[in-house]
Write a structure and sequence with these properties.
With 149 residues, the chain is an alpha+beta fold. Helix content is 44%, strand content 36%. The longest helix is centred in the N-terminal third of the chain and has 46 residues, at 2-47.
Protein backbone atom coordinates (compact mmCIF):
# COMPACT_ATOMS: atom_id res chain seq x y z
CA UNK A 1 0.00 0.00 0.00
CA UNK A 2 2.73 2.48 0.96
CA UNK A 3 4.75 2.11 -2.28
CA UNK A 4 1.57 2.56 -4.34
CA UNK A 5 0.61 5.69 -2.34
CA UNK A 6 4.14 7.06 -2.73
CA UNK A 7 4.02 6.44 -6.52
CA UNK A 8 0.69 8.27 -6.80
CA UNK A 9 2.01 11.13 -4.66
CA UNK A 10 5.16 11.40 -6.77
CA UNK A 11 3.14 11.35 -10.00
CA UNK A 12 0.75 14.04 -8.71
CA UNK A 13 3.71 16.18 -7.60
CA UNK A 14 5.31 15.97 -11.02
CA UNK A 15 2.11 16.99 -12.84
CA UNK A 16 1.31 19.82 -10.45
CA UNK A 17 4.85 21.23 -10.65
CA UNK A 18 4.73 21.12 -14.46
CA UNK A 19 1.45 23.03 -14.49
CA UNK A 20 2.80 25.61 -12.05
CA UNK A 21 6.02 25.94 -14.05
CA UNK A 22 4.10 26.57 -17.27
CA UNK A 23 2.03 29.32 -15.69
CA UNK A 24 5.10 30.95 -14.20
CA UNK A 25 6.95 30.70 -17.52
CA UNK A 26 4.10 32.40 -19.40
CA UNK A 27 4.14 35.30 -16.92
CA UNK A 28 7.93 35.52 -17.08
CA UNK A 29 7.83 35.59 -20.88
CA UNK A 30 5.38 38.48 -20.78
CA UNK A 31 7.62 40.40 -18.36
CA UNK A 32 10.74 39.56 -20.34
CA UNK A 33 9.03 40.72 -23.53
CA UNK A 34 8.16 44.05 -21.87
CA UNK A 35 11.72 44.49 -20.58
CA UNK A 36 13.22 43.63 -23.96
CA UNK A 37 10.85 46.14 -25.60
CA UNK A 38 11.91 48.84 -23.12
CA UNK A 39 15.60 48.19 -23.88
CA UNK A 40 14.87 48.24 -27.63
CA UNK A 41 13.09 51.60 -27.23
CA UNK A 42 16.08 52.93 -25.27
CA UNK A 43 18.44 51.77 -28.02
CA UNK A 44 16.31 53.46 -30.69
CA UNK A 45 16.14 56.73 -28.72
CA UNK A 46 19.92 56.69 -28.12
CA UNK A 47 20.65 56.01 -31.77
CA UNK A 48 18.39 58.95 -32.67
CA UNK A 49 20.40 61.20 -30.34
CA UNK A 50 17.44 61.52 -27.96
CA UNK A 51 18.62 61.29 -24.35
CA UNK A 52 15.28 62.43 -22.94
CA UNK A 53 13.42 59.49 -24.50
CA UNK A 54 16.32 57.17 -23.65
CA UNK A 55 15.77 58.08 -19.99
CA UNK A 56 12.10 57.03 -20.11
CA UNK A 57 13.30 53.53 -19.19
CA UNK A 58 14.59 54.81 -15.85
CA UNK A 59 12.36 55.38 -12.84
CA UNK A 60 11.63 59.14 -12.65
CA UNK A 61 12.63 59.38 -9.01
CA UNK A 62 15.35 60.57 -6.67
CA UNK A 63 15.72 56.89 -5.68
CA UNK A 64 17.28 55.95 -9.04
CA UNK A 65 20.85 54.72 -8.58
CA UNK A 66 23.35 54.76 -11.44
CA UNK A 67 26.86 53.43 -10.80
CA UNK A 68 29.49 54.08 -13.46
CA UNK A 69 33.24 54.62 -13.64
CA UNK A 70 32.93 57.87 -11.64
CA UNK A 71 30.99 56.22 -8.81
CA UNK A 72 27.34 56.40 -7.78
CA UNK A 73 24.86 58.99 -9.03
CA UNK A 74 21.54 59.33 -7.26
CA UNK A 75 18.35 60.53 -8.88
CA UNK A 76 16.80 60.74 -12.32
CA UNK A 77 17.77 64.37 -13.00
CA UNK A 78 21.38 63.87 -11.94
CA UNK A 79 21.65 60.77 -14.12
CA UNK A 80 20.21 62.61 -17.13
CA UNK A 81 22.61 65.52 -16.55
CA UNK A 82 25.56 63.11 -16.42
CA UNK A 83 24.47 61.57 -19.72
CA UNK A 84 24.16 65.03 -21.28
CA UNK A 85 27.63 65.97 -20.03
CA UNK A 86 29.27 62.71 -21.14
CA UNK A 87 27.46 62.55 -24.47
CA UNK A 88 26.94 66.16 -25.63
CA UNK A 89 26.17 65.32 -29.27
CA UNK A 90 25.37 62.45 -31.61
CA UNK A 91 29.04 61.99 -32.54
CA UNK A 92 29.88 61.32 -28.87
CA UNK A 93 26.82 59.09 -28.51
CA UNK A 94 27.56 56.94 -31.54
CA UNK A 95 25.37 53.95 -32.26
CA UNK A 96 24.35 51.79 -29.30
CA UNK A 97 23.97 48.02 -29.26
CA UNK A 98 22.86 45.97 -26.27
CA UNK A 99 23.64 42.26 -26.03
CA UNK A 100 21.54 40.67 -23.32
CA UNK A 101 23.33 37.88 -21.49
CA UNK A 102 20.63 37.01 -18.95
CA UNK A 103 17.23 38.13 -17.73
CA UNK A 104 16.42 36.75 -14.29
CA UNK A 105 13.26 37.24 -12.28
CA UNK A 106 14.13 37.99 -8.66
CA UNK A 107 10.56 38.10 -7.44
CA UNK A 108 7.16 39.05 -8.83
CA UNK A 109 8.00 42.70 -9.50
CA UNK A 110 11.80 42.70 -9.86
CA UNK A 111 14.12 41.51 -12.63
CA UNK A 112 17.88 41.53 -12.99
CA UNK A 113 19.36 41.96 -16.46
CA UNK A 114 23.01 41.35 -17.29
CA UNK A 115 24.34 42.51 -20.61
CA UNK A 116 26.97 44.12 -22.74
CA UNK A 117 26.77 47.60 -24.29
CA UNK A 118 28.72 48.78 -27.32
CA UNK A 119 29.03 52.21 -28.89
CA UNK A 120 30.29 52.45 -32.47
CA UNK A 121 31.70 55.96 -32.91
CA UNK A 122 33.87 57.82 -35.40
CA UNK A 123 36.17 58.90 -32.57
CA UNK A 124 36.62 55.33 -31.35
CA UNK A 125 34.41 52.50 -30.24
CA UNK A 126 33.80 51.76 -26.57
CA UNK A 127 32.07 48.92 -24.77
CA UNK A 128 31.40 47.49 -21.36
CA UNK A 129 28.98 45.50 -19.28
CA UNK A 130 25.91 46.39 -17.25
CA UNK A 131 23.66 45.01 -14.57
CA UNK A 132 20.20 46.52 -14.40
CA UNK A 133 17.63 46.07 -11.64
CA UNK A 134 14.09 46.53 -12.92
CA UNK A 135 10.99 47.14 -10.84
CA UNK A 136 7.41 46.87 -12.03
CA UNK A 137 5.59 50.00 -10.87
CA UNK A 138 1.87 50.41 -11.65
CA UNK A 139 2.15 47.78 -14.38
CA UNK A 140 5.20 49.30 -16.09
CA UNK A 141 8.85 48.21 -15.88
CA UNK A 142 11.54 50.76 -14.92
CA UNK A 143 15.28 50.56 -14.31
CA UNK A 144 15.76 51.44 -10.63
CA UNK A 145 19.49 50.60 -10.49
CA UNK A 146 22.07 50.61 -13.27
CA UNK A 147 25.66 49.51 -12.75
CA UNK A 148 27.56 50.04 -16.00
CA UNK A 149 31.28 49.67 -16.57
Amino acid sequence: MLPRFFSLFLLASIFSSQTFGQTKTAANLSDETAIRALLAAQTKAWNNGDLVNFMEGYVPSDSLLFVGKSGPTYGFTNTLNNYKKGYPDTAAMGKLTFTLLSLSPIEKKHYRVLGKWELKRSKGDVSGYFTLLFEKIKGKWFVIQDHSS
